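Box 3.1 A note on notation
Throughout this textbook, protein chains are presented in two layers. The first layer is the amino acid sequence; the second is a token string describing backbone geometry. Keep the layers aligned when reading.
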Amino acid sequence: MTIRKMKKRILTLTLFAAALTYAQAQQQAGGITPEMLQEIQQSYTETPSDKAIRNAISQNDIRKLTLNLDNQKGIDTHFSIRVPSKGITDQQSSGRCWLFTGMNVMRAKAIERYDLPGLEFSQAYSFFWDQLEKANLFLQSILDTADKPLTDQTVEWLLKHPLSDGGTFTGVADIVGKYGLVPKEAMPETYSSNHTSMMSNLIGLKLKEFALDLRASFARGDSHSALESQKEDMLKTVYRMLALNLGVPPTEFDYVRCDASGKRVEVERHTPMTFLEKYGDPNLLANYVMLMNDPTRPYYKTYTIAYDRHRYDGRNWTYLNLPLDDIKQMAIASLKDSTAMYFSSDVTQLDAKRGYLDVDVYDYGSLMGVDFGMDKKERIQTFSSMSAHAMTLVAVDLDAEGKPVKWMVENSWGPSYGHQGHLIMTDRWFDEYMFRLVVETKYVPEKVRRLFQQEPIQLPAWDPMFAEEDSSVEE
């Protein structure tokens, strides 16, 4: 070895050693050193009150310990404007709140229009098609991205979300518009429709396996028609799994229509589409708009989200981001006209026993001696709060100046939950945790409708704005 090469090698080794030393120093600087650990440990000097709190927390639910006594006064259940509920539904242990809520909005109109004693659309029927359509959306999207590596962010997102029982009003429009509606008696609930997790997990697991098969076929150079045929066979498997769990959707059925007193009026023969045309709304896409309050983004802008649909051949809905005051004006106009709305929110700060939502229901800070100071914008940015549960907005209480004091929603957790199946929320809570409202276009001012003409900003599926409403009953 020449002296020049030796010097070069020594220099290389020296630089490597220096880099390694720097890296180790950085790692050590960022870690918890013995000195730092000692400081941290010494910072906690257990006082008698700390010990009492520790003893209490070790044996109790934190929510029970933090229920704010100052917030336990009686709830004013009077509302100046209220749309009467048409019977409380129960989604049980499923994430179908979006489906129940969308159907509850439609059935309320049908009951009033035809003077019915009651009506409930079959959630199992629509859920069957929802799951099949979502399976196709996933498989076709896998084909569309088959040329990308498994580490591609879109492919990763797809494989993490092959199927779910959650959704948004988008799904109601997608599924009902294509498959129609049937009354609950034509396709009743099953254990799997009321307890969806196991069925959805098994189908989702199979879909992931199918995804790998499709990608392997694509890599082999299989033709487009061969891939489509393979996908169709996969959907046949999904259909069979759904039929075994939910039953076979009816194509025709009889509906016994009664008047408000329960007296039979006539027996009607229907298909799901004719039943939709008479008792539902076949023009959901045209008749409704989606409003959202997201303070992390500019207001008066429209957005769409990739894969924000329940059918591959459906449509990603356009969201209009508005300040809360604008949304409240439209909500009040709708309620004044006796029209309930699809409403979604977080369900944080819920006193389940009373069915009460307020920012002061729980006082975690006093128990822990910690200030939880994030505002709505910061909670969205850190994925700490999002649109998690859909309900039907049915009431508002206005003060003497016409400003909202509190709101009420019809929930889908059964009649014994909360306030007779409803949740009452303060206007302060509405400001912090309300995210989406679906309003009929006739309650939207012209200047707001014009905003939907702008080109929407396309967001990726993993954006914080995107979340499926999927909350079941909270313990």
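The mean pLDDT is 92. The chain has one domain: 81-459.
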